[in-house]
Every structure is written in C-alpha cells, then in structure tokens.
Records
---
Amino acid sequence: MNVPNALTILRIFFVPLLVAALVLENFHEWLALGIFLTAAATDLLDGYLARRWRQVTTIGTLLDPIADKLLVSAALVSLVQVQVLPGWMAIVIIGREFAVSGLRSIAAAEGYTIKASDLGKTKMASQVAAISCMMLSVAHESLWVPGMVLMWGVVLFGVLSAVSYFRKFWHKVDERIKQRRRRELLALERRRQRALLRQRGSKGGAGLGGAEIWKPPEVS
C-alpha cells in the first residue's frame, strides 16, 4: 500500500473519532475541530502526493470520494444530533453528494470521466470552513450566525455545482445510452429476421422433398 492510499484509509478511520468527539456528553469542540481539520488535510495531501509521485491507483480513485463523503456526512449528521444545524441542510448537502456520485458512476460505465469542477472545489473548501465554524458554535454561541451564513454558502455552491455537472454530462450520457439501446434493438431485429428466413427456408425444403415429381406417360 502506498502513502496516498494509506492517508485515504486514515481519513476513514477518523470518521468514528469525529462522531464520538461531537456527540459524547463531555463535548470537546477543539478536539472535534482538530480531528476534522486533520482528516480534511489528508484529503488534500493524498491527492497531491498521488499526482506528484505518480501513484494514482484504482483503489485510491474509488476510496477517495467515499472517504470524503463519509467525513462530511458524519460531521453534518453529528451537528444535527447536537441541534446546531437544521436537518434539511444536511439532507440537501448529503443528497447532492449521492446524486453527483450516481452521475459519476453512470458516466464511468459509459466511458466518460467527470472531473471536479471549480464550483465543486469551492464547495469543498466552503464545507470545511462552515463545518468548522458550526463545531465551535456548539460551545461558543456567537459563532452560530457566521456558521449558518457559511452553511448557506455550502448549500448554494453544492446546488450550483450539481447543476453544472448534470448540464455538462447528462446529455452526453443520455445520448450514449440511447445509441447503445438502438444498436441492441437493431441487432435483435437482425437476429429475428435471420431466424424467420431460416424458418421459411426449412419449411420450403420440407415441402419440396415430400412432393411427387410428375413424369409424362409412356407412349406405346
């Protein structure tokens, strides 16, 4: 296992620690913030090292977005649990992640690669800032309003980046799927036509074989 993949797996192991730090009765906001920021830093570091050392692997490509979504989703659900974040905001942000992930999977199956857009990168940076501020607002109420402003920014950037992804790639993916289905239907129709021709040919041969051949009468 290379270093970038190890950092990705480490980020996954940070998730239960983050949840424990947020929802336990003896809340430690600075501990939770430290765990979250450390995990977020591994997200930047593993991608940088993988590209710089040319260690981009299939398992790393698969695990990296999963680790990101686990980290952000765990933080949002925990903030809802401690009643500092409205539940609908968490649903919108997490739902956006699932929707874009589904689009990426469909695009990958059709041979397209969806890279992170500038809005997507801005969304990630705003998520880290907003969640960090909301964590601190649990013990410092004066930070709740700035945290909510940042969370609204997360929702806005999330929705805009999702719309950007779907506008760019859904038409291409949809056309690719329609073309593949048309080819499948054409191939099915050709097979059906060949089967009908073989069936007609076998019936014609059987009829000819069973008929008596007429011969002219002999003249005495």
---
Amino acid sequence: MATLKELKNKINSVKNTQKTTRAMKLVSTAKLKRAEEALLLSREYAKKIEEVTSEISQKLSAIKDTINIRAFANITEVKKVDLIVITADKGLCGGFNHQTIKATLQKIEELKSKNIKVRLKVIGKKGIEYFRFVGIEMNEAVEGLSSAPNYQKAAEFIEKSYEDFVNEEIDNIILIFNGYVNKLTQKVHVKEILPIEVKESGNNDEFLEVEPDDDYESVLESLVKKYIEYIMYYALLDSLAGEHSARMQAMDAATKNAQEMVEQLTLKYNKARQEAVTRELIEIITAIEAMKKK
C-alpha cells in the first residue's frame, strides 16, 4: 500500500496535470473561435465556386465536342492518382489524426486492389511521422501548413498535382482530411477534386449566354485552377478548425478525468491517514495497558 507521502505526491502531480489540461482547453477554445470565424468567412466562397463548376459540368455536354479540357474529361481508365492527406502538426487531440490516417490507409488499399499507383502527399507533422514509421513512401511531405493555412502556399502545393493531371501523368486527385462539423463533431472527408464529374443537363439549349470562342477554354481552365486552389485552402481551414475542436474536447475530458483521479486519491489519502492515526492510538493504548499491568 502506498504511503501518505507517496499519495500526497500523486495528488499534487495530478493537480498540476489538471492545471495544464485546463489551460490547454482554454487555449484551444480561443483558437477554435478564430479558426471557426475564418472557416465561415471562406465557406460561402468555397460553396459558390463549387456551385459554378457543378453548373458548368451539368451543362457541359452541350459543347463537349468544341472544347478540350481534361478537368471535365470522362477518364474511364485510372492508372495513377495523387492522394493528398491533411493531418495536424500537433497531437493531444484525441483520435483526430488517427481517423484521417485510418481513412488514408483504407483508400490506399482500395486503390492498390484496383492496380492503381498511388502518389502520397502529406501535410502535417503527425501524418508524416506515422507514414515514415510504417515505411510508406511519400511523394511530398510538408510541415507547418496545416497549423497555419495560407492561400499562396496551398496553391503552390496543389499546383504540381494539377500540372501533372493536365499533362496526363496522373488521372485523379483525391483529398483526405478531418473537417469541422461543430464543437463536438469532426468528419473525415475523402474527396475526388479532379476530374470534375460531367453530368447531363436536361436543358442544354440554355447553357451559354454567349457562344464559345477561342478564349473559352482558357477561361474554363483558369476557373478550374482557381477551384482546386481554393478547395485545397478551404480543406486546410476546415482541418484546423476540426483539430482545435477535437483538442478542446480531449483536454476537457482529460481535465474531468484528472478531477476524478484527485478525488479518488484524496479518499485513499484520508483513509490511509485515518488508519495511521488509529494504529498510533492502538499502540499508545496498548503501551499504557502494558505499563498498568506492571
């Protein structure tokens, strides 16, 4: 059984840990508020650019013979893909990174079962460390971007994949990240961002207000590039908000667990102290009785 001193040291240690977890929860709460604001400000633009590309893809069949843009092509045989994964740079956020890594491993197995070659590109220290540890080759690894999303850096990161797609070196770009739903929930997204699915439109006659000309393809290509750049940037913002919400939950749970442990240890400490006092009293009484008999 632990001594009173050992129990007292354990109680103090757990209390110090509790102070740390409580402070980390407050920090994560403040950071989540800022990340959530940035996410909400970007959400409308991301939604609108997706709506525009979706509308174009729905009605593109009307002029499919007059344009040649691979982003809207119907690629029937996929041989090679870029798999872009976003994880956090830091831990202590529950199963946030594990869920993303698990989804990535499942996607890799799925693609390999179809004899599709995978180029893995990882953003975030935790993901990089894991894939290095298990010996999975990465085509590109970037630290610092997931904890501080930047549009220019996001555009530079996705640019190589886009160029390889346009040059037919890869056939698909897939993005995996754990996104923010609310303060209590995160959701893993597995999103194919290129090629953009071309859907048949029920009213092709109203596709364009102007006739396609020589510049039409360059306009669409510019739109597609802007689309994937912003999707990449928005995914980083979404992942960061999800990370902070997951860490806030994890630290809140850790604080509560620490409080429960302090209460249990305090109970053991008080019980041990009472037993020690009782034992001392018994020893004193026993000694007094022995002296009386003499």
---
Amino acid sequence: MGKLAIIYHSAHGHTEHIAQQIRSGAEQIDGIEVHLLKAEDLALAPDALVEFDGFILGSPTYLGGVSGPFKTFMDATGRLWRTQQLRGRLAAGFTVSSLPSGDKQSTLLSMFVFCMQHGMLWAGNPILPEQHNGVPYEEAANRLGSWSGLMAQAGHASPVDSFAPGDVKTARMFGRNFALNLQRLCAPIEA
C-alpha cells in the first residue's frame, strides 16, 4: 500500500476545498492511503513526512509565491534535506488564486525546486484542456492550461461556491492520476 500526504495551507478555506477534491480523486485508487495534512502542523513535526511515499503540496498564491505558513513548513524540512530522507518520493503541487493567472506558475515552481532539492520525483498535470474539444470553458478540465501542476481559480464566495465546475473536476482527476502513478511506483518488483 502506498501512503499519500496532501499537505496544504489554506487561510480562507479555498485551498483546503481543492485539497479535499484531490483527496476524493486519489481515494478512487485501490492500495493508496490518503491523508490530508496542514502545513502549519507539519512545520512543528516535519519528521512525520518520512512515513509517506508521495506528497501533493498545496498553497494559495500570495504575491507570486507560496503563503508564509507554507514556506515555514518548507523551511522546517532542512534536517530531512541534509540527510536526503525524502529522496525518491513522488511529488506534485497545486495552487489557488483569485485571478486566472495570478502568478500561480511561480508558486508551482517554488514547490518544484523544493521537491528537487529533496531528491523527489515530480509528477506534472497531464490533463488536456477540454475547452479545445467543445466543453464550455467553466466546465472544462484544466481550463487554466497548467502542465507543471494543478491551478485553480477561486472567487470571493464561500469555498464550496467559489470554483468553476471545471476546476473541481480537474482537482479530482489530478488526485486520481497522481494516485495511479504512486500505485505504480509502490508496486512490488517481481524477480
């Protein structure tokens, strides 16, 4: 069985809502145990990461990067970095902002570099934008066109009502795809 940690920070509930949708997709795959973990809790106990086989990292985009609490979590893993205890783990990232771009790519790149420094393997977002096949823009998977990770756009309503249906669908597909890759990575090697 593979163990997946979806690690996120969410100040207003929007990033948490997308994390929950990713979990919903990942839980569709047999043999994957999924945990939702808050970055601020892991900043106090980063050694807990060594028990996981894969990580999906999530942060809102604030001023072109991860949030302060998420950066604190990242910085707290220094001891794990020095001993490369997370080497070979599968990783991916997602981010939420209120604008279609909102410099979300910068946030994903900071997560990517963090994972590369730990020796992890990065899984991007292979979902093709569905609006090119005639699906209405708001309902289209990967409507924002990101391949380096998952991007979602939040409105200013409650987290449940803030997202286009396509972003929610993309999050579930992203979680399912990641879990399938983690399942393959954790499969026993036959001699």
---
Amino acid sequence: MNQNISQEQKANRSLLITMGVVVAAVAIIAIVGFLFMNRPDSYIEGQVEGTNIRISGKLPGRVMEFYVVEGDTVHAGDTLVHIHSSIVEAQLGQAEAMRSIAEATDKKVDAGTRSQIVSAAADLVRQADAAVTITEKTYRRMENLFNEGVVSEQKRDEAKAAYDAAVAARDAAAAQLSLARDGAQKEDKAAAAASVQAANSGVNQVEAILEDSYLTAPFDGTIDQIYPQVGELVALGAPIMSLLKLDDRYVVFNVREELLNELRMGTKMDVMIPALGKKHIDVEIYYIRDLGSYATWRSTKSTGSYDSRTFQIKARPTEAVDGLRPGMSVVFEQ
C-alpha cells in the first residue's frame, strides 16, 4: 500500500512540474512577443469629396425626355433634359398675339380711324382687362399667403410685378383704343410705339422662362444622380439632377487640434487610397476650419487632462489621379 502511495505522489509531482514548465514557456513567449512585436502605426482616415451642384430651372412643367443617364460624362453646354409647360407656352402665344395687335395698330395709326382699327383696339383692351383681373387675383392670393408665412417675399413680389405689368399693358391698350377713335396725332404715334415696346417686353419675359425648357450643363462633369422620372411634374426651382464637377477632387480629414502643429496650410501629405490598390498620392492642405463645440473631444478626467477641439482639413492632389472618385476612403499614416 505504501508503494502505491509513493507512485501516486511521484505522478502528481511530475504533472506539477510539467504544468510549471508549460506556464513558464507561455510566459516567456508572451514576454518576447510583447518586446519584439511591431506596433501598428497610428493613422487618420478621411474620404474623397468633390464639387456637386443641383441642376434646376425656373420653368414648372412635366419632364418630357432625359438626354443623359446617371454616370454619363457631359461637357459644358450639353443638353440634359426637356421640360414641357403647356401653360407657359399658352402665355407665349397670348403675348405674341398682343404684340401682333400692337404692331398692326402702330402701322395703321396714320391711316385714320377705321372700324377695323377700333375693333382691334377694343379687343386688345378686353384682353388686357382679362389679364389684369387674373394677375390681380394671383397677387392678392400671394399677399395673403405671404402674410400667413406660406410663401416667400420673392414670390409675392413676382406676383405684384406681373400685376403691375398687366395694369401697364391695359393702360397702353386703352390709349391705343383712344388713339384709334380720335385719329392719329404726334402723341398717338408715341403711344402706339410704346404699346409695341410693352408687347415686346411681354414676349421677351415669357421667352426667358421658356429658355429653361431645355436645361444644359454649366460645366464639364459626371451625372451623379437624377431625381424625377420621365412624365413627372416638377415645380419651380425643383432639382432635376446633380452634376459632379470633373476637375475638382479633394480629400477631407477631421483631426484633433494636437495635430495642427504638423498639418498646416500648404503642408504636403502622403496619403493612401485603398480603393486604388493602396496607391499613394501627394495632397496639399488648402483649408483648415474649426468644426465647433459639437465636435469637441471631452476629457473623462477631472484633473490631468483637457478638452480637445476637432478641425476639418481639406487637401487637393498635387497631380491628377485616374479613377479618384468621391466617397473613396483616404488613409494618412503618421
């Protein structure tokens, strides 16, 4: 029995020695690894951005056709979309008709008083009265909506300008009617010429709005996003699509203020673009701005530390980089 106890003690002692050796080996490996391992470099991550504008116009209407799709590269002046407005085109027809009447009256004012001239002038007055009635109602409606805070002051002023123009056109038409009835005088000729000028101004105003029936690209770029679909109605000033400028790319970083001593205006940085096969490019800082108190790093200790503000840094590539697109990640290793 004593012999069995002695063998059991020897086995336990051997097990303890083996465990001790294993623990010691693990500890030695851990210590060596901690001493010789390569610590990762600290880095700052940002992203690529670019100038992006929204294409919109002053013509409310229906989208008839797109001449581009998302991702297309366009040049300045290229036609992007066709917007049709039957209301504005009807207004153009009305303005051109009023101009024709004014021109005809101006040409015939020296021929004396004719029944046809009087009738045409009377028609012009009736049309002008109808225009005054419509524009006055629109103006009163806009005035009420402005007082209620529904529409902007600019909308109210535009309605007032349209009403004033209609009143002026009516007065000119009334003068033409009086001219036709009383016969041609020197003053009558001047009034007829003024009527023609007023009618031309009305046509030019509507044509200026219709210019936006075909929207064009203001600069070379890439179609980033198209918002409405063909057949949809768009309001005045509503964005139709966004255009990304081709030759404007820059990188953006948000950094703590401790790093500003190394990152100053004009400083060149070597950054890495993971999306381009970890390609390294040089960028130059051209913009530094405080992001405000909402981006402040707050200290978690009551003593021995301090708050640190966050600054935004923008830098442009020193050379053109093929394939560089907004949204790509950018890494700056310190």
